Amino acid sequence: MQSSPLQRYLHRYTPAAPLATFRMAFGLLVLASVVRFWAKGWIAELYLKPKFFFAYYGFEWVRPLGPYTYGLFVFCGVCALLVTLGYWYRTAAAGLFVSFTYIELMDKSTYLNHYYFVSVVALLLLVLPAGRYFSLNAHLNPARWRSEVPRWTVDALRLLMGIVYCYAGLAKLNSDWLVHAMPLRIWLPAKNDLPIIGPLLDRVWVAYAFSWFGAFYDLTVPFFLLNRRTRLWAYVTVVVFHVLTAVLFPIGMFPYVMMVAALVFFPAEAHERFLARLRGWWNTTPAARPSMSLVYAPRTRQALLLVLGVFFVVQLLLPFRYLLYPHELFWTEEGYRFSWRVMLMEKMGQVQFKVVDSATGRARLVNNYEHLSVLQEKMMSTQPDMLVQFAHYLRDYYARRGVHNPKVYADAYVSLNGRLGKSFIDPTVDLARVTDDLRPKPWILPFDDEISGL
Amino acid sequence: MKKTALFALLLLFTAVGIFSCQKDSGVDPAGSDATVDRKALLTQWADSLVKPGYQRFNDKMAVLKTKTTAFTAAPTPATLLDARQAWQTAYLEWQKVELFEFGPAESVSLRNHFNIYPADAAGINRNIITGTYDFEVATAIPQQGFPALDYLLNGVAMGDAAIVQQYVASAGHRRYLTDVVAKMDQTFGTVYSQWNSSYRDTFINNAGTDASSSLSRVINAYSLYFERYLRAGKVGIPAGTMTGTPRPEKIEAYYLKGTLPLQLATTAHATVQSFFNGRAGRPSLKSYLDALGAKDSRSGQSLTSIVNTQFGVSAQQLSSLGPDLFTTITARNADAVASYNEMQKAVRLIKVDMTSALGITVTYVDNDGD
């Protein structure tokens, strides 16, 4: 076998501590997210009360489970806890991935990039050997204990973090963000009552500074985190940046998830010190034993590398799928999700649906709020795929109520990043007969403007 | 790292320099009276709109109470006319405060107690006969407030003489009329006194932009009022825009008819307009939006002038529905529908463009930017 640099890299080993701390921190954060979600009453509000849910294409079978939805959240929380403890690690990671992803797939209107991030990380943890060190598994079954893991298993997490930041940065390289400081120019003055920084937020130049720094930060921070000399400072900016976003925007747990996840860039010794301190709290002194590397059987190793390879190729390509669609991404949102596009748009809309009886020609207007939650209506108003889904629901709803072959039309009005609102979709197209799939939607009206950039 | 940081800063300031030079020509600098100051705006609303508005309405309510008491004490054609006149005046004044359904008004559901129509005449008659009713239950919503008074003062019998006779003959009618007014008085009284005590400060100090902030609540109430209770309630639903069939009997003040229904609608519309514009030199939505520099980035036109133009068109189309809205809805239905459509355009500017420019959040749920 030749020994190429890649081959040598794939045979390098590193302490397992970063994987262990990442596993614990991530598990705890997911657990906290679940508890927070429940405590805020969002399970009932988002998954029990609405009469209709916006399924993802191909996942129409994923539905809230009625009152059992609480059970789903309990299961998810328990899995997160088990992942933290490293007990039944592999099963718990699988359970965490499946249950969290199921929750996210129940309704599109709750889509958040950080939920997607959690799902993606849970999937990675499922294949990475994060349960072999500083875990209950290894404690109860010392034969499973490994203090060193292949280098690439830790680097996989770093690579994912790098992708998230870089793609979020690339997404900011557009004219609305850089040239017009939109949408920060709208969002920042809305926070001008904050102590100290408040008065600054009214200034236009501050919106520009935030926009440019944000793009620069996202594009470069993974590299500064990788570099030994810049790492500490880079991490300080990670904390400052995310604390700032937490103060300014209603983005929930995202800032904390990123702050904690970025710790994976620190070297093994730092993680080791941290774990030693934890051991100190528990008063457990580990039996001094020689370090032991996790050596995969060649087949297993190949399979894992193949899975990771495919995973990262998908991660790298998926955000660019929008190129397959002909029109402005921010307007049509075709290929917008799952691409690390965060905080890029101030988009708002209003839509009035009209249902027409094919036999009698009688028309009636729909009160959206009778069918949808505030959040659902807000999200639907600006997203064409959701408009079709709701139109299909209305078609079936009115057909059950005796309307013959209902035709459904939508008069939608949408404003994007400070542009005056305009008609969003063709009001003469019968959405009841439009198929809901991934093809470009020709009935989305032109944007009549241009946002240049990526 | 030092070099990189320096470079980044340099890049930043160059960029800021370039863009601020570009922008300064387009954006008018915020003047002394045009600041993005939410507390000043909320203070103006509380002290110059809500409290004085409620005070004027309170006066009209007092007259209404006196006149209806006089009528039930001695039902004659003259006392009936007095009571009806007081009802009309108070109803018109109500149009100027109905949009303040936030804070105390929201927590007691003031509108539900004052102006949900069409009145449930059958239910009212049942209540009069049984003599037992609870104005707090959901079914009683259309059995009270101004619409119930409309029925009680104009619709319980044909002609004034017969109406007077009804009240002379029936203690139940006298009692129900008294109770309806008393309930209005009592419900409004709690709202009014809260504004005059602690709520005013609570209101102006909640100066953020999240979903529970005063601004968010006000804008929510304002656009909801315009969309649902003015556009749909006063014109759309009677004109049949929701169902395809005109339903003129669903207009406001249906039992009186005549010029009042349209007068109520135009008063409401004028209120919506003047709430937006405020007084010159004082904080208002208009001055706030101008201070933000809100404009259509496609055309460069200011959002407030776009809104005001549409308000004008919409007000004109609405006033063309006179003199008698009931007749117009059947005789010139297309005009009523056109009025609804013009209001709809204004609703969108308020609900979408204005709300978006204000940067307020409408839900409590996490959001990472649409």
From TrEMBL, chain A:
As for membrane topology, the entry says: Multi-pass membrane protein
Q: Fetch the InterPro entries from UniProt.
A: HTTM-like (IPR011020), HTTM_dom (IPR053934), VKG_COase (IPR007782), VKGC_lumenal_dom (IPR053935)
Where found?
Endomembrane system
Q: One GO cellular component from the entry?
A: endomembrane system
Look up the domain of life of the source: Bacteria
Q: What is its main location?
A: membrane
Q: Which UniProt keywords apply?
A: Disulfide bond, Lyase, Membrane, Transmembrane, Transmembrane helix
Q: Supply one GO molecular-function term.
A: gamma-glutamyl carboxylase activity
Pfam families for the chain:
HTTM, VKGC_lumenal_dom
The HTTM-like domain sits at 11-270
Q: Tell me where the transmembrane regions lie.
A: 20-39, 68-89, 115-135, 156-173, 205-226, 233-266, 303-324
**Protein name (database record):** HTTM domain-containing protein
Look up and give the organism this protein is from: Hymenobacter metallilatus
TrEMBL record, chain B:
- List membrane-spanning regions: none
Q: Which keywords has UniProt assigned to this entry? A: Signal
What name does the UniProt record give this protein?
Answer: Peptidase M75, Imelysin
Domain (Imelysin-like) spans 52-294
The places in or outside the cell where this protein is found are: Cell envelope
Q: CDD domains, per this entry?
A: Imelysin-like_IPPA
Stored PROSITE patterns = PROKAR_LIPOPROTEIN
Q: Where is the signal peptide?
A: 1-20
Keyword check for Signal, yes or no: yes
- Key word Metal-binding present in the record? no
For this record, an example GO cellular component is: cell envelope
